[in-house]
Each structure stands twice: as C-alpha cells, then as structure tokens.
Write a structure and sequence with these properties.
It holds the Pfam family His_Phos_1. One of its GO terms (molecular function) is phosphoglycerate mutase activity. Catalyzes the interconversion of 2-phosphoglycerate and 3-phosphoglycerate. The protein has eight helices and six strands. By secondary structure, it is of the alpha/beta class. The chain has a single domain, classed as 3-Layer(aba) Sandwich (Rossmann fold), CATH 3.40.50.1240. The protein has a six-stranded mixed β-sheet with strand order 3-2-4-1-5-6. The chain is globular and about 50 Å long. The structure holds 3-phosphoglyceric acid.
Length: 211
C-alpha cells in the first residue's frame, strides 16, 4: 500500500516581506502570503485529493497557511496535529536581523553558509542538521507510519524544517541541499512506496523564484 505526503511551506510572512531572519519568531502572513496559500490550496484541490490528517508547527504563519489550504480543499475541520518539532530552524542571534544588514556585516558568503549549508549553525541557532535531528524523528514516528498505512497526509511547515525532510526524501547530498530553496505556498506531492522510498514527486507551482 502506498500513501501520499504533501509538504507545503507557509505563504509569505510579514518578516519575509521585511527581509528579517525569522526562525522561531511568530509573525503572521502578509496579504500576498494569504494569496499564495490560496493558490497552493486551489492547486491541491484541483488534483481532487482528500486528506486524512494534517500536521503543522507551533507557529502561526504555518497554522494559518494550513487553515487557508484546508478551506480550499473543503476540509476545514480536518484533524490537525501541531508540534514544535516542525518549527522553522531556530535562527538564534540572527532572529529579527535584516538579511541585507547581516550580509553587509558578515559578508555574502558567510550569510549564505548560515542560511543554506547543512552543518554550519548560525550563531546561537540551529544548523540544518540540528533542525533535521528534531524534524526527522518526528516524521519517522508520527507522520511516516500514517503514510505507509495508505493515508494522505498534509504537512504545512517552514522553509528549513521542510528542507531537512526534502533532503532525505530526495536523497540529496550536503552539497546538493545548498542549492535547494522552497517557494512559499507551493505544495510538493510525494507518493511513497511501501518501503518508504519516494515513488513520485510532483511540485504544484513554481519553485524557480525561491531564494
Ligand atoms: O526563518 C526565516 O527567516 C525564513 O523563514 C527562512 O529563512 P531563510 O530563507 O533565510 O533560511
């Protein structure tokens, strides 16, 4: 039996718009973010999928994205589990700083390494590996068993918490994950084999503009 796992990054948040490192801070969606969630939700609805359960983080930009997507799906009351294991990477001391100011202070390359490398943590924060060390066990114990039972599972979370999952699902190396950016509000539809490997991946939207 194979199930379906859909991952969606939240729509644009207020701090995405202001170009601030966000991490575990809790800004809400912007009007554009709401629109992105609606577009992603509609793309999912157009596939005819109906979900058995949803997961999201402890942060409102992901929770509100999920709410909008579920509205588009006609499943506003779907059982939803919230857990901080799915929260964004903790950006530590960078949280709240402007990304361009950080580049001016520490240099383009250092900031890129903090943002996209696998194992270099930002000061006082989590590397992607640290993020994966909490996301992956949660996925294995709470999410994957349901998918393997044939359920359709929706996960609304964050750029880096989802990158840590995508890295493993897509079997990406430390070098390859450096170039992966997830667009806001674009659903990724994975069908898994019974042995938990990926049978197919379908991206419902445009990832090319993500940075
Ligand atoms: O936490 C943040 O600032 C964003 O959600 C993701 O940021 P990044 O694209 O710099 O990793």
């Amino acid at each position: 039996m194979s199930g379906t796992l859909v991952l969606v990054r939240h729509g644009q948040s207020d701090w995405n718009l202001k170009n601030l490192f966000t991490g575990w801070k809790d800004p809400d969606l912007t009007p554009l973010g709401i629109q992105e969630a609606e577009t992603g939700g509609q793309a999912l609805a157009d596939t005819g999928i109906k979900f058995d359960i949803a997961f999201t983080s402890d942060l409102k930009r992901a929770q509100n994205t999920l709410k909008i997507v579920l509205g588009k799906l006609g499943q506003p009351d779907l059982e939803t589990i919230r857990d901080q294991a799915l929260n964004e990477r903790d950006y530590g001391d960078l949280s709240g700083l402007n990304k361009d100011d950080a580049r001016a202070k520490w240099g383009e390359e250092q900031v890129h390494i903090w943002r996209r490398s696998y194992d270099v943590p930002p000061p006082g924060g989590e590397s992607l590996r640290d993020t994966g060390a909490r996301v992956w066990p949660y996925y294995l114990t709470e999410i994957l068993p349901r998918v393997l039972r044939g359920e359709k599972v929706l996960v609304a979370a964050h750029g880096n918490s989802l990158r840590s999952l995508v890295m493993v699902l897509d079997k990406l190396t430390k070098e390859e994950i450096l170039g992966v950016n997830l667009a806001t509000g674009v659903p990724m539809v994975y069908v898994l084999n019974a042995d938990s490997t990926v049978a197919s991946k379908d991206v419902l939207g445009d990832m090319s503009g993500a940075h």
